[in-house]
Amino acid sequence: MNEVILKLRGETLEYSHCFLLGTGKISDNQIIEFDSYYELLQYSQEKKGKKLYFLGVENFDDLMLIEKVRKADKKSVIVLISQFYNLSSHIRDFNIEALSIVEPVETVEKIQYYVNRAVNYTFFNDSEEIEINGDILDLRDILYFETDFQHSRHIRCILRNGEKSYNARLRNIRNLHPSLMTSSISNIVNVNNIVDIDSAKGIIKFERPDKIAYLTRTYKKNIFEKIKMNSNLKDSE
């Protein structure tokens, strides 16, 4: 595996041991130069049997790259970097296990932030805690997150005992830990704390009988695949 240096508009991205899969200029000293962030078309790191791909999306046709990567490597984790507005609305039909959507990114600092976050999320996130706006939460206490509107900046975290409110977007919560998964446009659930699913009614139950999350058909398959090994789960369908 070659050690390389990635540079964006002349500034170094601190990320090495990468394979370059797409376009870019490779000089003799293994420095890869990109003129703009969406020229970071594809690169991956091989670790723990997975490959991480960054796909730059300049137009809708480029979304077909997702299917090509998934067919070639079913264990891949894909991060989209795009100038599209509301890119997530265009990719709901793609069945991808772990997909991080990066909205328009204009600075090297932001690129570096998303690179690090994706790498940590994919390969190194064994922590039992997450952080939201400086507040540390124990995953064992989290049942699910909910919001009243799909694009609202206000979310509620439902805990084993009580709940907390945050100024944050629901879509960003999913990337905080692999056990947090989308179950509907208004819910993200902690799959480790699910005790029952009623598929007919489209609801997810937890140890708190007064609290339920919703499950829609779009996300049903991924939820069941993630928790099929949980012995305490039974489908009421």
From TrEMBL:
InterPro entries per record: LytTR_DNA-bd_dom
Lineage top rank: taxon: Bacteria
List the SMART domains hit by this protein, alphabetically: LytTR
A GO term for molecular function: DNA binding
Q: Tell me which residues make up the HTH LytTR-type domain.
A: 134-228
UniProt-recorded name of the protein: HTH LytTR-type domain-containing protein
- What is the protein's species of origin? Lactococcus lactis
The root-end lineage is: Bacteria, Bacillati, Bacillota, Bacilli, Lactobacillales
